[in-house]
Design brief:
globular, 3 domains, Uridine Diphospho-n-acetylenolpyruvylglucosamine Reductase, domain 3, alpha+beta, disordered N terminus, five-stranded antiparallel β-sheet
């Protein structure tokens, strides 16, 4: 579900609905909540197209919600094929299409129907995958994404309660046969747990343990954020300055992830020695070198050799996973967005920034001619005002909202 604007101000919610009992219950509960506040719900029904009957089931769900007075829209995932990793690919496609639907409607909050059994199964999957303590904190009750806040209000609710709620309301749902597919790891774990209602002692004990681990993770996230606020100056040109001295590995990992423009965080074990004794190093596509005239400590900057190739300079284009282009009007055909590279030398007169920063600064090119470097307020003398902005916008914040345990 999603809400545009503050949740308490006549919210317009959107519920991600697959047709199963959990998401149907979520849609109705959200509808009850929103109507009491003068708002309404938009149900986003996702059809992955992986089964012959999925389209009919999705249409049935849309119709069922409509009869209940809940506005619904059908979203169809295309190009998804069965095979290895289909569950992960389906999840990524589902989040992608839901995110796009929310953005198109100006919706800021996306609510998902994961319940207590889902939380238990997710934790067990992470245990089997060798996850560390942070992974064993389970799914977050609230998570921040770019332009969206993901909420999971049912993480401690047993699925039996959701089915009972629907039964009392006289509402049916669709049972997805893939939930019993023995080829799927989650389905196998569900069978071994033998607690379909999610009310058993084992499930409840696991949920309690996950909650406690989640609280520890929240405290760690807050400590990391405090360290980064105290030790790091993050610049809109895409580099950072780190004060001298040891730093917590988790904090250094978050800094490296941000400068690299990736969603992946380097292993803390891999950088433990560097965190204990920061010094010149290249790691994960990021260079650490003395700050020089920029001050005491260390300059943390993108490695030029690791930077991405140029992309078409269209509105919303992202280069190197770090810089997002915003245009007041379209640029001429053939304009590309890429790194300044070797042309940095000719612009040194405009700034005191070192060559290591300039070479990976985003620039606009056309026909191999440098057109503009917005971060330096530079444009070619014969080029009119392009009406563009380049925002340093990595996919994950260096330190966002602390983990929110269920």
């Amino acid at each position: 579900m999603a809400a545009s604007g503050p949740l308490e101000d006549a919210p317009r919610l959107a519920a991600a609905v697959s047709g199963g009992a959990d998401s149907m219950a979520l849609a109705l509960l959200a509808d009850d909540w929103a109507r009491a506040r003068g708002g309404r719900v938009l149900a986003l029904v996702v059809d992955h197209g992986l089964r012959a009957t999925s389209a009919a089931e999705a249409e049935e769900t849309v119709a069922r919600l409509g009869m209940l007075g809940v506005e619904a829209r059908l979203l169809t995932v295309s190009g998804l094929a069965k095979g290895p990793g289909v569950a992960m690919r389906a999840r990524e496609a589902r989040y992608g299409i839901l995110t796009a639907a929310c953005a198109a409607r100006g919706i800021l909050h996306l609510l998902l129907g994961h319940h207590a059994a889902d939380q238990a199964e997710t934790t067990m999957i992470r245990v089997l995958g060798g996850s560390g303590g942070r992974g064993l904190s389970g799914m977050a009750r609230v998570a921040e994404a770019r332009g969206l806040r993901v909420l999971r209000p049912l993480l401690t609710v047993p699925p039996a309660w959701l089915r009972a709620f629907l039964t009392r309301r006289g509402v049916g749902w669709v049972e997805d046969p893939s939930n019993r597919d023995p080829l799927a790891q989650r389905a196998r774990i569900r069978g071994l747990r033998d607690d379909p209602g999610g009310e058993g002692e084992g499930t409840q004990a696991l949920i309690a343990a996950v909650r406690q681990t989640g609280r520890a993770r929240a405290a760690e996230d807050a400590a990391i954020a405090a360290t980064l606020a105290r030790r790091v100056c993050l610049r809109p040109e895409g580099y950072a300055l780190l004060t001298p001295g040891p730093i917590a590995p988790a904090a250094l990992a978050a800094l490296l992830r941000t400068i690299a423009g990736g969603g992946f965080t380097p292993s803390e074990d891999r950088i433990a020695d560097l965190a204990a004794n920061p010094g010149p190093r290249t790691v994960g596509g990021v260079r650490i070198l003395p700050a020089g005239r920029l001050g005491a400590g260390w300059l943390v900057v993108r490695e030029a050799r690791a930077a991405a190739p140029p992309v078409a300079a269209t509105d919303g284009a992202v280069w190197d996973g770090r810089f997002r282009l915003r245009l007041a009007r379209p640029l001429p055909d053939g304009t590309i967005l890429g790194g300044l590279g070797g042309s940095a030398a000719r612009l040194r007169r405009l700034t005191e920034l070192p060559d290591a920063v300039l070479r990976v600064m985003p620039a606009l090119w056309r026909c191999n001619i440098l057109v503009a470097v917005p971060q330096l307020l530079y444009s070619d003398p014969v080029t009119p005002d392009l009406g563009c902005r380049l925002l340093f916008d990595p996919p994950r914040p260096m330190a966002g909202v602390p983990f929110a345990p269920a």
